[in-house]
Amino acid sequence: MIDSVLRLDRDDGRRVLYILDRYSIGLARALGLIAALAFLFLVVPEIALRTIHLNLTTLNKGLLFGFAGIGLNFFFRNTGLVSFGQAAFFGGAAYFTAVVTRDLGIGAIAVLLVGAILFSALLALLIGLLSVRHKGIYFALLTFAFAQMIWAFVIRQRYLNYSDGMQVRLQDGFSILGLQIPTEHHEVFVYYVVLAVTLLGLLLLYRLYNSPFGKTLEAIGEDRKRVTFIGLKPERYILSAFTVAGIYAGVAGALFGIAVRFVSPAQTLDFFVSAVILFAIVLGGMRTLTGPIVGAVVYIFITDTGRYYTEYPDLLAGVVILLIVLVFREGIVGSLRNIDWRRWVP
Amino acid sequence: MSFFTSAITHTLHGLQAGFELFLIAAGISIILGILGILNMAHGEFYAIGAYVSAYLFGVVASTVPLGANIFATLAVFVLVVVGSTLVLLPVGAVVEYGILRRLYDRHEIYHLLGTFAVILIVTDLLKLVFGSSPIAAPTIYARVNDLGLLEPFGISYPTYNFLIIIASIVSAVFVFYLFGRTKFGKIIRATAVDKDMAESLGIDVSRIFTVVFVLGAFFAGLAGAMVVPTITANLEMGTQPLLLSFIVIVIGGLGNIKGTFVAALIVGLFSAWTVWLYPPGEIFVAYVIMVVVLMVRPEGLFGTVGEIE
């Protein structure tokens, strides 16, 4: 019986090849993708269990900053506008999640994520409406100011425990799609949730880049005036893209609160958070889809885990950033992709 | 304390903060206007000035017997502040020459990232040199305050802080003189308006860039060197002035020194008055002013984008 399940006839084979062809993925790349997924889902948690050098919480943090980064990259790459205030959505949604868990006792991650999406979308629409008229460095500074205002608001609220931050904990732990997460395995489960959400987010973004909406945005980035001549309203598209970026940052922030089980202004609303989300794009490579995730994971790994090896992890991070800015200009993923690997294979 | 005297005290606090802010923001503003780079590392120049002067003040306090002699004390103040600010000249030159020079013709996200890396590096270098615990200069602060210059007028305001105001006014006048009245200032303004034209007139633009950046670093360092006896030098001290300077240059109009000056005073005074009348609003007020200005006049109060006036 197993035989009949596993047996693929020629039609099935053709179908697989057809699907691969449709998404213009070569067979080698498809196998590479499967290997990478297997590594991420099966090998990484095993490594993390056996060594202190790789910590799943650190990895979760990196992935989530990266998740906010891919959303921002969709906005930045297409419009050329730099948002220096993603912490507003990241931290805003993180605090929103913390409050919902504390006051309503909701531990279902799916519900929390839907809430975070709605919350950050509304916030992004509001901030976006007030900002998209502005260009260049003004847009950056305006988004930055809004994020700082939210920071200033939060650290004065008794309800949000001032600048000390809030626990994100429940008596019986969180649940995902009806499955209760045992508290002692919280990290691993959240890691899987983060991975799944990240993959889903990447897939969605891939479709978005290639949708008419994405193409219009690209045109706006190249020449805003001409797009206006066609009869479209660039501001509306830019606002939508900004909202997409806001939702990505919001989902990341909500999961961050759940992953770390703690939210604080310093970790989620600080201007350094906006900076890391923005710079992950450049570190990983802005012309790549997955680059921001790699960039954020590397950066968080250096500054978090680096603490155990050196007293000066920031110095190390600074030098790495300079190397990427000055030498490997396409970012980590971009530079790796530019290497002609076939030269090394006989 | 009557309403009147506390109004004066808080206004003086606001003036001090405003002038200090001007010294930092003016550098960011001029660098943005001419080099086209928003220098995120500017707060670290302020921190470097603060650390070096805290260190020097400490050395001086333990070696030189400071009497209540007003001239000796003033001489020490000026020497230490100027001495520690000189450190910023090579630092600024290295950053401009080594890093920024390679970023001019690239997207602004690289400017932000490159100078952000400088923040990280400088912070850890300060930690390496001076240790991670904050350092203070209490002796000199107490000595200067013993002079009690403002006591006769019934105003309770530390003499040292008053000195900061005086020194900042002198520096601000110097900045305006330099840019408004000298040939050097004219060259810089011309470069800001049109780099290619300036170059074709025989101006060495890349040297102007270095000089402008070093000057900017110098004034930020000066602000840090002066402020240190009133606060402790610590590793995070660069962030808040940087963020406030962003606000100031946006309110004043990017790259406009006059606007920066007015905006710095507005932010300084309104913050001080808010601390006095409605303490919870303190950290809010600057951002609120900025957003209101941007909504009403997106180009800032004195906005003439790209021009230095």
Q: Would you write up a description of this structure?
A:
The complex is a heterodimer of chains A (346) and B (309). Chain A is mostly helical and 346 residues long. Chain A has helices at 2-6, 10-22, 27-50, 56-79, 87-104, 109-131, 136-154, 186-209, 212-222, 224-230, 234-260, 265-269, 271-284, 291-305, 313-326, 331-338, and strands at 166-167, 175-176, 179-180, 262-263. In chain A, the strands form 2 sheets. Chain A has a two-stranded antiparallel sheet. Chain A has a two-stranded antiparallel ribbon with strand order 2-3. In chain A, helix 5 (87-104) packs across helix 11 and helix 14 packs antiparallel against helix 15 (313-326). The longest helix of chain A has 27 residues, at 234-260. Chain A is globular and about 60 Å long. Mean pLDDT of chain A is 88; it is low at 1-6. Chain B is built from 13 helices and no strands. Chain B starts with a helix and ends in a 13-residue tail after the last helix. The relative contact order of chain B is 0.20. The A-B interface holds A 76, 80, 82, 84, 130, 133-134, 136-138, 140-142, 144-146, 148-149, 152-153, 155-156, 271, 275, 278-279, 281-283, 286, 311-315, 317-319, 321-322, 325-326 and B 32, 38, 99, 102-103, 107-110, 112-114, 116-121, 123-125, 127-128, 239, 243, 246-247, 250, 254, 280, 283-284, 287-288, 290-291, 294-295, 298.
